């Protein structure tokens, strides 16, 4: 289900008595849910972020999968879109929490709109501000004017507060060698895969001296790869994250591309053409993306600011990189990931991302 979230917030005094308002509509413009609340004494920007958060929570409660956020706060829209940095330390936790809620949906877009198009949320926010002030106040203080913190540049970003994610595909299995779809089947590493996993561990150790955590899909080929890596980086325990598991290929499990093309030509064409289509009896990339985003949000929440090794499969890693690079769905069928290949990216609390490398394989030669 697709919905529109209109959100606003304000403060009488900046800081002063503050409140927020959120409206969730269907695509025809009908109101599905409204929320407002007083926030005591705080700033315009905190109130605006709170309006966004409450709107996203309401959309999630309604079971929405796609959300179009519309706000008259240029600051919030630009920061959540990743175009402006967040220098105000007080806003970073709110932006990080909003990013975690965004990850629960299949798609979220942000659009700035003029205030006259945001009247419903504005009215709710003003009502909440009146309540916070304890008396009716008609005049609303204009939101704080904020300009971009700094222009974009090619200079390396500061690593302050960043979380480094080292993404590793598991080592080779018999299915890998034969080019067979390997989803939920628990196929063990081959002898070559064991050697590749150890080599990946050496590469990871070279990338990071202090690894905070090693997390893995629950399937044996990933757990074994993770164990080799953990041994190379000082014996960090391996933590299982169920939602890092591979896509379920259903009836195609264990078959080659040619075999599937021969047996299910129409289904294969539909699957290649849309991430919303699942293999017969399996899972779509769209559904997998939703759970993988949730897993990554949980990982960032648990180990933020550290170095995390994520051992998973082709599809989850492709989905992570697609989102990080803001790429189209075509990316999923154009990127090749080798067994035990290593990719690296950094994520900041404000949602900014820098992809450092994709599918490194020099350690396997």
UniProtKB/TrEMBL annotation:
| Alphabetically ordered keywords of this record | Isomerase
Instruction: Give the E.C. number(s).
Output: 5.4.2.12
Isomerase among the record's keywords? yes
Q: What broad class of enzyme is this?
A: isomerase
Q: Which organism is it from?
A: Paractinoplanes abujensis
GO CC term, one of those recorded: cytoplasm
Looking at the record, the residues that make up the RNase H type-1 domain are 1-138
- The entry's protein name is Putative phosphoglycerate mutase
Coiled-coil residue windows? none
């Amino acid at each position: 289900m697709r919905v529109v979230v209109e959100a606003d917030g304000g403060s009488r005094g900046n800081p002063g008595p503050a409140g927020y308002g959120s409206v969730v509509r269907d695509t025809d413009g009908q109101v599905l849910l409204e929320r407002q609340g007083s926030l005591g004494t705080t700033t315009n920007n905190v109130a605006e972020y709170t309006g966004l958060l409450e709107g996203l929570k309401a959309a999630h409660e309604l079971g929405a999968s796609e959300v179009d956020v519309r706000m008259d706060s240029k600051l919030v829209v630009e920061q959540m879109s990743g175009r402006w940095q967040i220098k105000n330390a007080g806003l970073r936790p709110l932006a990080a929490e909003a990013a975690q809620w965004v990850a629960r949906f299949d798609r979220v877009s942000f659009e700035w709109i003029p205030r006259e198009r945001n009247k419903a949320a504005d009215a709710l926010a003003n009502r909440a501000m009146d309540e916070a002030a304890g008396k009716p106040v008609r005049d609303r203080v204009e939101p704080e004017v904020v300009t971009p913190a700094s222009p974009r540049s090619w200079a390396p970003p500061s690593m302050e507060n960043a979380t480094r994610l080292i993404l590793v595909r598991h080592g080779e299995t018999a299915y890998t060698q034969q080019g067979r779809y390997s989803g939920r089947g628990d196929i063990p590493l081959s002898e070559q895969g064991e050697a590749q996993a150890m080599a990946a561990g050496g590469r990871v150790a070279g990338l990071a001296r202090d690894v905070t955590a090693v997390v893995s899909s629950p399937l044996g080929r990933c757990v074994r790869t993770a164990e080799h890596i953990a041994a190379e980086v000082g014996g960090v325990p391996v933590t299982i994250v169920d939602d890092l598991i591979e896509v379920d290929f259903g009836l195609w499990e264990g078959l080659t591309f040619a075999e599937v093309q021969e047996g299910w030509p129409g289904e294969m064409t539909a699957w290649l053409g849309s991430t919303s289509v699942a293999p017969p009896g399996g899972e779509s990339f769209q559904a997998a993306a939703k759970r993988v985003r949730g897993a990554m949000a949980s990982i960032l929440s648990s180990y933020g600011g550290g170095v995390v090794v994520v051992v998973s499969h082709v599809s989850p890693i492709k989905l992570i990189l697609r989102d990080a690079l803001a790429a189209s769905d075509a990316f999923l069928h154009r990127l090749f990931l080798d067994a035990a290949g290593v990719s690296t990216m950094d994520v900041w609390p404000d949602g900014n991302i820098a992809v450092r490398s994709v599918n490194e394989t020099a350690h396997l030669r």
